[in-house]
Amino acid sequence: MGNGMGSERGPEDGEGAGYSMAPAERLPLTDDCHHYGGKDQVPWDIQKYFAQRYSVFSWYDEGVYLTDDAWFGVTPEPIANQIAVDMGAADEKKTILVDAFAGAGGNTIAFALSGRWQRVIAIERDASTLACAQHNAQIYGVDPSMVSWVHGDSFEYLDALANHPGALHPDLRVDMDTTVLFSSPPWGGPGYRSDEIFDLHSMQPYNLEQLHKSYESMDHVLYLPRTSNIRQVARLAPAGCKIEVVQYCMQGASKAMVAYIPARNPTSREDEPGEEPPVEDPMSTDSDSSPSVQKSTAPTNGLDSSVS
Ligand SMILES: C[S@@+](CC[C@H](N)C(=O)[O-])C[C@H]1O[C@@H](n2cnc3c(N)ncnc32)[C@H](O)[C@@H]1O
C-alpha cells in the first residue's frame, strides 16, 4: 500500500522536497505485477477476467501488466474510451482531469489519449498497481508529460488541494474551478454482486457519503456498480442542478452506472436535504446486438435523461 507520499523516495528527497505530495517518479514493476501469457499461469479466481483480456486492454499482448487485484476493478477499454468522450464534452474552461483511483490505468490512459485535457493527475495508493499503470500508459503511447502520477491517497490530495494547497508540489496545485474529477472506487461491500439494488451507503471501503463529501466542490463523475441505488445518487444533486446517470453496456449488458454530478454551488442552499425524487428503472439496456459500447439513461426528477 502507498504511504500518502508523492514518490517512492518520499517528498523529502529530490524535486518533491518539502511537499506532502509530489508527482511520482517512474516506479519499478514488482513481483506483484504480472503479464500472464496463458491461462495455465493465471490464478483460478482471475481466469474469467483473463478470458476477457482483449476487451480490457486491446493491446494486452504488447505487454500489459496488472496486479492480480487490478483485474477485478479495471475499466474495460471500450467503456473507458466512451467515458473519455463523454467527459470531454465538459465545459471548455475545464482543462485538468483528476483520476482519483487510477488502478492499472484503464481510465487514465483513455483520458490522456483523448487529447481533451491539458493534463491528467492520476492518483493510486498501491505502488505495484501504480507501476502497472505507468507501464501500461507507456505501452499505449501516452505522452509522459500528459500525466502527473501520484503515489498516495486521493482523499488526502483533495483535502490538501482545498485546505492547504501550499503543501502540494506546484504541479499538483490546480484550480478546482477548471478541474473535473473522475472516481472509480473499489466496489467492495455486502451485496454488490447479489443485491438487486446495491446500497451505496454500504459500499466499502468508501461509501457514497465519503466520496461525495470529498468531491462536492468540483464537477465529478462517479463510476459505480450497475445496480447502484439511483435514488441515493439523485439525492446528491445540488439545488437547481441535474445529474446525468448513464449505464455503460457491452454485449448488451451493463458494466457500470456512471453519474455526472455538478459541483455544489456555494451560494445555494444545497445542504438542505432534498425530497426524494421519483425514479424509473435505470437498468434497461438498448439491445443485444453489440457495438463495442452502448449507453442508456434513465430519466428521473433531478436527473438528465439526455443521451449524447
Ligand atoms: C476499481 S480500481 C480503479 C480501476 C481503474 N479505473 C482502472 O481502470 O484501472 C480502484 C483502485 O483504487 C486504489 N485505491 C483505493 N483507495 C485509494 C485511495 N484512498 N487513494 C488512491 N487510490 C486508492 C486501489 O488500490 C485500486 O487500484
Automatic annotation (TrEMBL):
Catalysed reaction equations from the record: a 5'-end (N(7)-methyl 5'-triphosphoguanosine)-ribonucleoside in snRNA + S-adenosyl-L-methionine = a 5'-end (N(2),N(7)-dimethyl 5'-triphosphoguanosine)-ribonucleoside in snRNA + S-adenosyl-L-homocysteine + H(+); a 5'-end (N(2),N(7)-dimethyl 5'-triphosphoguanosine)-ribonucleoside in snRNA + S-adenosyl-L-methionine = a 5'-end (N(2),N(2),N(7)-trimethyl 5'-triphosphoguanosine)-ribonucleoside in snRNA + S-adenosyl-L-homocysteine + H(+); a 5'-end (N(2),N(7)-dimethyl 5'-triphosphoguanosine)-ribonucleoside in snoRNA + S-adenosyl-L-methionine = a 5'-end (N(2),N(2),N(7)-trimethyl 5'-triphosphoguanosine)-ribonucleoside in snoRNA + S-adenosyl-L-homocysteine + H(+); a 5'-end (N(7)-methyl 5'-triphosphoguanosine)-ribonucleoside in snoRNA + S-adenosyl-L-methionine = a 5'-end (N(2),N(7)-dimethyl 5'-triphosphoguanosine)-ribonucleoside in snoRNA + S-adenosyl-L-homocysteine + H(+)
Biased composition annotated in UniProt, kind: Polar residues: 293-308
GO CC terms, sorted: nucleus
Molecular functions (GO terms): RNA cap trimethylguanosine synthase activity
Protein origin, superkingdom: Eukaryota
SUPFAM superfamilies registered for this protein in UniProt: S-adenosyl-L-methionine-dependent methyltransferases
Ranges of compositional bias, category Low complexity: 281-292
One family name in Pfam for this protein: Methyltransf_15
Start and end residues of each stretch annotated as Disordered: 1-21, 264-308
Family per similarity comment: Belongs to the methyltransferase superfamily. Trimethylguanosine synthase family.
Protein name: Trimethylguanosine synthase
Native organism: Tolypocladium capitatum
